[in-house]
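Second attempt. The first submission of 4-hydroxybenzoate 3-monooxygenase had a stray character pasted in from the spreadsheet, which I only caught after the job came back as garbage. Lesson logged: always re-copy from the clean sequence file. Corrected sequence (378 aa) follows.
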Amino acid sequence: MRTQVVIIGAGPAGLVLGHLLHRAGIECVVLERHSRAHVEQRIRAGVLEHGTVELLTDLGVADRLHREGLVHTGVELLFDGVAHRIPLRELTGRAITVYGQHEVVKDLIARAGFPIRFEQGALRLRSDRAVETAEGVVEGDFVAGCDGFHGVSRPFVAGSLRVYERDYPFAWLGVLAATPPSAEELIYALSDEGFALHSMRSPTITRLYLQVAPDEKLDDWPDERIWAALQRRLAHDGFTLTEGPILEKGITAMRSFVVAPMRRGRLFLAGDAAHIVPPTGAKGLNLAVHDVKVLADGLRRFYAGGDEAGLDAYSDTCLRRVWRVQHFSWWMTSMLHLAPDADPFTRELQRSQLRYVVGSAAAATTLAENYVGLTGSP
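This time the job returned cleanly.
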């Protein structure tokens, strides 16, 4: 098979790129090693920046998002037992939308006007223009590696990449609970026991997180212990945490990871194939969407008249935002998590930073601008 752009990976990055290219009249095919059911059921983060929602709307795949998504105009920072609201819309004119990543994937697949080939087995790159699948070789003018951190794209060019990484000394224990959210907005909490996050997936499903050690075992966290820890870490006046059956739980290590450049020859890396951010800033999906938007614009210019300037600038353009997002995610993570070796001096620095953020309009605006998504080039 031959096409113009071969896209590896049917996650948000690959599917959004497919929609953008299809709209521009550029032929493409998405190759995915897993089944459609597997892809549509992978539970991931669900906070969409304002710009991400605008793009999905423009692509015509956001009808259900607008019906079912939960628009949030603020978030709360909780420390020393007191919650402080950061008014996102008031400070920036923009908001975020809570809508599960797997729901975004379902919408993108349902409206796809381009071929998506599922269950392709162990994919292998023959070159920066050809991908070997279970059904044969697919060739293109370009290959877009949107296949995640554990995909085949980055290892193919690993020897030519510079790697930047940082592992954090804690992890997140995340749970989905069959109970209505206990607050209308997200609550980011720092307590003497560590970090906690109250989030949601729908009016009937709550998403909650606890900071734990990176080597913790799920067997050591029965439901009763999870709820007890959440009750303590999220406690503040006027708040009641509603408990319910836990539907699923898992532990996720926290790390920062960036490779540069995000291109080699005709192979372009996008999303988690090129960078990982700590989940504290809720940026993974949004950063991937920004990558493929830049890539699609470069490809459109190339096919419209042979202009390669956008493709040549792809890596530098994306990495400027990647590093801005890495800094924001690191800052949020450092400010809201209790490091295992944190001494009283470090703890007071954290409190000082939190007090400054909630007490200064300029500092609160900085948080809000980064959280809802920066406009233009960072």
